[in-house]
Automatic annotation (TrEMBL):
Protein known as: Ribosomal RNA large subunit methyltransferase E
Keywords, alphabetical: Cytoplasm, Methyltransferase, rRNA processing, S-adenosyl-L-methionine, Transferase
Chain's gene name: rlmE
Disordered: region residues: 1-20
Pfam assignment, any one: FtsJ
Occurrences of domain Ribosomal RNA methyltransferase FtsJ (ranges): 43-215
Length: 227
Protein backbone atom coordinates (compact mmCIF):
# COMPACT_ATOMS: atom_id res chain seq x y z
CA UNK A 1 0.00 0.00 0.00
CA UNK A 2 1.26 3.52 -0.75
CA UNK A 3 0.45 7.09 0.18
CA UNK A 4 1.71 10.48 -0.93
CA UNK A 5 4.23 12.31 1.22
CA UNK A 6 5.63 15.83 1.04
CA UNK A 7 6.49 16.97 -2.46
CA UNK A 8 3.95 14.63 -3.99
CA UNK A 9 6.20 11.57 -3.74
CA UNK A 10 4.57 8.24 -3.10
CA UNK A 11 5.49 6.57 0.19
CA UNK A 12 5.10 2.85 0.73
CA UNK A 13 3.84 1.51 4.03
CA UNK A 14 6.04 -1.25 5.43
CA UNK A 15 4.28 -4.58 5.07
CA UNK A 16 4.70 -7.41 7.55
CA UNK A 17 6.74 -9.57 5.18
CA UNK A 18 8.57 -6.77 3.37
CA UNK A 19 12.07 -5.71 4.38
CA UNK A 20 13.09 -2.08 4.72
CA UNK A 21 15.34 -2.47 1.68
CA UNK A 22 12.52 -3.79 -0.49
CA UNK A 23 10.26 -0.97 0.73
CA UNK A 24 12.89 1.59 -0.33
CA UNK A 25 13.23 -0.14 -3.73
CA UNK A 26 9.46 -0.05 -4.25
CA UNK A 27 9.31 3.63 -3.34
CA UNK A 28 12.11 4.37 -5.78
CA UNK A 29 10.28 2.50 -8.54
CA UNK A 30 7.01 4.30 -7.87
CA UNK A 31 8.70 7.71 -7.99
CA UNK A 32 11.10 7.05 -10.88
CA UNK A 33 10.04 9.10 -13.95
CA UNK A 34 11.80 6.62 -16.26
CA UNK A 35 9.77 3.74 -14.82
CA UNK A 36 6.58 5.73 -15.34
CA UNK A 37 7.60 6.69 -18.86
CA UNK A 38 8.48 3.10 -19.74
CA UNK A 39 5.02 1.95 -18.69
CA UNK A 40 3.37 4.73 -20.69
CA UNK A 41 5.42 4.05 -23.83
CA UNK A 42 5.29 0.26 -23.69
CA UNK A 43 8.93 -0.49 -22.86
CA UNK A 44 9.64 -3.46 -20.64
CA UNK A 45 12.15 -1.63 -18.47
CA UNK A 46 13.55 1.80 -17.73
CA UNK A 47 16.85 0.53 -19.20
CA UNK A 48 15.39 1.22 -22.66
CA UNK A 49 16.10 4.92 -22.13
CA UNK A 50 19.79 4.26 -21.49
CA UNK A 51 20.10 2.95 -25.05
CA UNK A 52 17.87 5.73 -26.41
CA UNK A 53 20.10 8.34 -24.77
CA UNK A 54 23.30 6.65 -25.93
CA UNK A 55 21.89 6.45 -29.45
CA UNK A 56 20.96 10.13 -29.42
CA UNK A 57 24.49 11.01 -28.33
CA UNK A 58 26.51 8.60 -30.50
CA UNK A 59 24.16 7.64 -33.36
CA UNK A 60 24.63 3.96 -32.60
CA UNK A 61 21.52 2.76 -34.44
CA UNK A 62 21.97 4.90 -37.53
CA UNK A 63 21.82 2.62 -40.56
CA UNK A 64 22.26 -0.66 -38.67
CA UNK A 65 20.92 -3.83 -40.27
CA UNK A 66 22.13 -6.58 -37.90
CA UNK A 67 22.27 -6.21 -34.11
CA UNK A 68 23.22 -8.60 -31.29
CA UNK A 69 21.83 -7.94 -27.79
CA UNK A 70 23.82 -9.74 -25.07
CA UNK A 71 21.93 -9.91 -21.78
CA UNK A 72 18.68 -9.15 -23.56
CA UNK A 73 16.21 -9.83 -20.69
CA UNK A 74 13.70 -8.27 -20.13
CA UNK A 75 14.00 -6.89 -23.66
CA UNK A 76 13.97 -3.11 -23.39
CA UNK A 77 17.04 -2.61 -25.55
CA UNK A 78 15.79 -5.00 -28.23
CA UNK A 79 12.49 -3.08 -28.25
CA UNK A 80 14.37 0.18 -28.86
CA UNK A 81 16.28 -1.34 -31.77
CA UNK A 82 13.09 -2.72 -33.32
CA UNK A 83 11.27 0.61 -33.00
CA UNK A 84 14.12 2.68 -34.40
CA UNK A 85 15.29 0.17 -37.01
CA UNK A 86 12.21 -2.00 -37.78
CA UNK A 87 13.91 -3.73 -40.73
CA UNK A 88 16.98 -4.77 -38.72
CA UNK A 89 17.75 -8.37 -37.82
CA UNK A 90 18.00 -8.56 -34.03
CA UNK A 91 19.33 -11.53 -32.06
CA UNK A 92 19.36 -11.68 -28.25
CA UNK A 93 20.69 -14.04 -25.60
CA UNK A 94 20.23 -14.30 -21.84
CA UNK A 95 20.40 -16.87 -19.07
CA UNK A 96 16.89 -15.83 -18.09
CA UNK A 97 13.79 -16.43 -20.15
CA UNK A 98 12.70 -13.46 -22.26
CA UNK A 99 9.11 -13.00 -23.33
CA UNK A 100 8.89 -13.05 -27.15
CA UNK A 101 9.57 -9.81 -29.01
CA UNK A 102 8.26 -9.51 -32.55
CA UNK A 103 11.11 -9.63 -35.03
CA UNK A 104 13.74 -10.70 -32.47
CA UNK A 105 15.39 -14.13 -32.33
CA UNK A 106 15.95 -15.07 -28.68
CA UNK A 107 18.19 -17.69 -27.08
CA UNK A 108 17.90 -18.69 -23.43
CA UNK A 109 21.39 -19.89 -22.60
CA UNK A 110 24.73 -18.85 -21.14
CA UNK A 111 26.58 -16.50 -23.48
CA UNK A 112 29.82 -18.08 -22.21
CA UNK A 113 28.75 -21.53 -23.44
CA UNK A 114 31.02 -22.83 -26.20
CA UNK A 115 28.18 -23.09 -28.71
CA UNK A 116 26.65 -19.64 -28.04
CA UNK A 117 28.75 -17.48 -30.43
CA UNK A 118 28.11 -19.78 -33.39
CA UNK A 119 24.36 -19.85 -32.72
CA UNK A 120 24.19 -16.06 -32.53
CA UNK A 121 26.26 -15.62 -35.69
CA UNK A 122 24.16 -18.13 -37.63
CA UNK A 123 20.90 -16.49 -36.54
CA UNK A 124 22.26 -13.09 -37.51
CA UNK A 125 22.83 -14.16 -41.09
CA UNK A 126 25.92 -12.04 -41.65
CA UNK A 127 28.37 -9.67 -39.92
CA UNK A 128 26.85 -7.52 -37.19
CA UNK A 129 26.65 -3.74 -37.42
CA UNK A 130 26.26 -3.35 -33.67
CA UNK A 131 26.89 -5.56 -30.63
CA UNK A 132 25.20 -4.44 -27.42
CA UNK A 133 25.99 -5.86 -24.00
CA UNK A 134 23.99 -4.94 -20.92
CA UNK A 135 25.26 -8.04 -19.13
CA UNK A 136 26.31 -7.95 -15.49
CA UNK A 137 27.32 -10.85 -13.28
CA UNK A 138 25.10 -11.81 -10.36
CA UNK A 139 26.53 -10.01 -7.35
CA UNK A 140 27.84 -11.88 -4.31
CA UNK A 141 28.26 -8.80 -2.11
CA UNK A 142 32.06 -8.65 -2.36
CA UNK A 143 33.01 -5.58 -4.40
CA UNK A 144 36.24 -6.91 -5.90
CA UNK A 145 34.71 -10.27 -6.78
CA UNK A 146 31.65 -8.64 -8.34
CA UNK A 147 33.89 -6.35 -10.38
CA UNK A 148 36.05 -9.22 -11.67
CA UNK A 149 33.00 -11.29 -12.61
CA UNK A 150 31.42 -8.45 -14.55
CA UNK A 151 34.69 -7.55 -16.28
CA UNK A 152 35.04 -11.17 -17.40
CA UNK A 153 31.69 -10.81 -19.18
CA UNK A 154 32.82 -7.53 -20.76
CA UNK A 155 36.00 -9.22 -22.02
CA UNK A 156 34.02 -12.07 -23.55
CA UNK A 157 31.57 -9.65 -25.14
CA UNK A 158 34.40 -7.51 -26.56
CA UNK A 159 36.12 -10.54 -28.07
CA UNK A 160 32.82 -11.68 -29.59
CA UNK A 161 32.18 -8.21 -31.00
CA UNK A 162 35.56 -8.00 -32.69
CA UNK A 163 35.01 -11.40 -34.29
CA UNK A 164 31.41 -10.73 -35.31
CA UNK A 165 31.21 -7.08 -36.38
CA UNK A 166 31.72 -5.84 -39.90
CA UNK A 167 34.49 -3.29 -40.41
CA UNK A 168 33.09 0.03 -39.21
CA UNK A 169 30.73 -1.63 -36.72
CA UNK A 170 30.29 -0.60 -33.08
CA UNK A 171 30.26 -2.21 -29.64
CA UNK A 172 28.58 -1.00 -26.43
CA UNK A 173 28.99 -2.67 -23.04
CA UNK A 174 28.02 -1.98 -19.45
CA UNK A 175 30.97 -1.65 -17.10
CA UNK A 176 31.31 -0.59 -13.48
CA UNK A 177 32.44 2.61 -11.76
CA UNK A 178 35.76 3.82 -13.13
CA UNK A 179 35.02 2.40 -16.56
CA UNK A 180 36.53 -0.59 -18.28
CA UNK A 181 39.82 -2.02 -17.04
CA UNK A 182 42.95 -0.81 -18.80
CA UNK A 183 43.46 -4.20 -20.46
CA UNK A 184 40.00 -4.09 -22.00
CA UNK A 185 40.40 -0.46 -23.05
CA UNK A 186 43.72 -1.32 -24.67
CA UNK A 187 42.13 -4.23 -26.51
CA UNK A 188 39.30 -2.04 -27.78
CA UNK A 189 41.66 0.74 -28.86
CA UNK A 190 43.64 -1.76 -30.92
CA UNK A 191 40.50 -2.81 -32.75
CA UNK A 192 38.32 0.33 -32.87
CA UNK A 193 39.03 3.84 -34.05
CA UNK A 194 37.20 5.53 -31.15
CA UNK A 195 36.72 4.31 -27.55
CA UNK A 196 34.77 6.38 -25.01
CA UNK A 197 32.97 6.04 -21.69
CA UNK A 198 29.53 7.48 -20.99
CA UNK A 199 26.92 7.50 -18.26
CA UNK A 200 23.50 8.19 -19.78
CA UNK A 201 21.09 10.31 -17.71
CA UNK A 202 18.80 7.28 -17.31
CA UNK A 203 21.48 5.55 -15.22
CA UNK A 204 20.64 6.29 -11.61
CA UNK A 205 23.04 8.72 -9.95
CA UNK A 206 23.84 6.24 -7.22
CA UNK A 207 24.51 3.43 -9.68
CA UNK A 208 28.08 2.29 -10.34
CA UNK A 209 27.33 1.48 -13.97
CA UNK A 210 28.96 3.20 -16.94
CA UNK A 211 29.06 2.21 -20.59
CA UNK A 212 32.06 1.80 -22.84
CA UNK A 213 31.37 2.74 -26.47
CA UNK A 214 33.76 1.45 -29.14
CA UNK A 215 33.06 2.83 -32.61
CA UNK A 216 34.24 1.95 -36.11
CA UNK A 217 35.90 -1.45 -36.00
CA UNK A 218 39.20 -1.37 -37.85
CA UNK A 219 39.46 -3.61 -40.90
CA UNK A 220 43.13 -4.48 -40.71
CA UNK A 221 43.62 -5.78 -37.17
CA UNK A 222 43.55 -9.53 -36.46
CA UNK A 223 41.30 -10.39 -33.51
CA UNK A 224 43.09 -11.23 -30.27
CA UNK A 225 41.64 -11.90 -26.85
CA UNK A 226 41.92 -9.24 -24.12
CA UNK A 227 44.96 -9.74 -21.93
Amino acid sequence: MSRFGSGGKQRVKTARNRTAASTRWLERQLNDPYVQRAKAEGYRSRAAYKLIELDERFGLLRGVGRVVDLGVTPGGWAQVVRRRRPQATVVGIDLLETDPIEGVTLFQMDFLADEAPALLTEALGGPADLVLSDMAANTVGHQQTDHLRTMALVEAAADFAVRTLRPGGSFVAKVLAGGADSEIVGFLKRHFEVVKHAKPPASRKGSSEWYVIAERLKATVTADAPA
